[in-house]
Amino acid sequence: MDGKAIRDTQLKSTEMVSENSVLTYTIGKVSDYYQISSSYFDNFVFVFKDEKMNKTLKSIIIGIVCISAISFWIYIGINKDPEIEITQTITEDTSNLIFKLINKDTTLHLDSLLASSFISYSDSTNYINILNNSTPHKITISEIAPYTTTDLLSLTYNKNTLKNYKTYLKNNNQFQEWDSVSNSLKTDFNFNISELTSYINEIGSFTCNTSAFYYLKSDEAYNVVSLLNLMMDSITPQIIKRLLYYKINTDNLFQLLAGDLFTENKDYYINMGDYFVFSSDTSELSYIYQILEEGNTLEKNPLFTNYKSKQYSEYGLNYYSDITKDDDTLNRILSYQLRGEQNGVISNFNIFYSEKILDTIIMDTLLVDTTITQEELLINDIVNSTIQSQEKEDLGEIIYTLKEGETYRNATVNLKKLLEENGYDYQKIKAEHIFFFSNKGNTKLDWKTAKSKYLGKGLAKKGDYFLMKKFYY
């Protein structure tokens, strides 16, 4: 064989190998999907290596393989995983839906919103961006909220949430007003909103009997107490019927934390363990005290129990609303949840239905005989008048100041003796009426917080003192 013939044969062999490599790859991809045995396709490869193979047959087989490959990719496109597809969807219409829900926007078509969706962080003016890098939480405010609560909102909160909220305000040209209010609190009361957010982990609201309550939750309640005390409008809380109520010198604390989620002004509050419940007056807060004493909380409401049983994941924002109408045959509970992820927010909108049940607590209320005789009215007036006059009358104070080297524990023993000398039962009144002052009287703590911070820790100093406003006992 001459040199030219040899080169032509080598070139042809190279083309065949290259061509067969591509074809083998294509067939392999299709066989992976259709699970056809590789030995079947090996026969084709063997045929292609035969230089004498009929060119017409070769073209037919190549055509079949190409059609199979095209069919494969069309099938994959049709059956694409919706979970992957959702990450590319920006749901602009629902990005600020929470505001429409809490404001009871009647133009909303709720049934059209029933879905789970993904909202990207790409639009920096969206309010939901405050959930970026937030941690989901369990709903526990139902342990405090009344049984008859119709609306409940809970929002995960920390220093990062405040940072996101400030960014949102800047992107919407609203930061200047916020900054002005924040600086005023710093100047007037040495109160730093950023420091408060380092101690809280949840904020929210609940509504019952047309009254709205706001709340903070903290695992470090004593630190929150210290900060709120900086804004108190008097050195001691109000004592009404032996219950404590506090008032701060600002009524827009919650607007500073989360803006339009909180539209009402609240400046009175009560402290209940990890919770700080705010309202516009003490009469509404006394209702919360009563609810807790009676145990009639939302946690026992079957509608809320049903709602919680259908929560399969934890979210950063939870909204519960009883949207049942009088003429509805079933109870309807609206559930809207948001959870911040790395690139956006997952939203979950549902309406849960359940049979209407006339609640036993409501029935008991309806069946109580509320008729009051003239004699009873006169007695009630005398009692109420006496209580009010006693609450207004300043009876003085009982103060016990720690001496040099005196421990907190020893101080409480001496305080007990002092109270008993004045006719008070130390065990019964200490939790609600006694406060501990440190740092030259600038830091004020309630009994539970002070005990947790000072008892057995050697932190109490000379000059710290216990104080109790005298009251009729």
Please write out the topology.
Blueprint: H1 3-34, H2 38-49, H3 55-78, H4 82-86, H5 97-102, E1 115-120, E2 151-156, H6 159-171, H7 175-189, H8 193-197, E3 200-208, E4 211-218, H9 221-229, E5 238-240, E6 243-247, H10 253-258, E7 268-272, E8 275-279, H11 282-294, H12 302-309, E9 317-322, E10 330-340, E11 344-355, H13 360-367, H14 374-392, E12 397-401, H15 408-421, H16 426-433, E13 434-438, E14 443-446, H17 447-454, E15 465-469
Antiparallel strand pairs: 1-11, 2-3, 2-9, 3-4, 4-8, 5-6, 6-7, 7-8, 9-10, 10-11, 12-15, 13-14, 13-15
Helix pairs in contact: 1-2, 1-3
Give a written overview of the molecule.
With 473 residues, this protein is of the alpha+beta class. The chain has 3 domains: 3-78, no CATH class; 92-355, no CATH class; 377-469, no CATH class. It has 17 helices and 15 strands. The protein has helices at residues 3-34, 38-49, 55-78, 82-86, 97-102, 159-171, 175-189, 193-197, 221-229, 253-258, 282-294, 302-309, 360-367, 374-392, 408-421, 426-433, 447-454, and strands spanning 115-120, 151-156, 200-208, 211-218, 238-240, 243-247, 268-272, 275-279, 317-322, 330-340, 344-355, 397-401, 434-438, 443-446, 465-469. Helix 1 packs antiparallel against helix 2 and helix 1 runs parallel beside helix 3 (55-78). Mean pLDDT is 77; it is low at 3-52, 78-92 and 360-372.
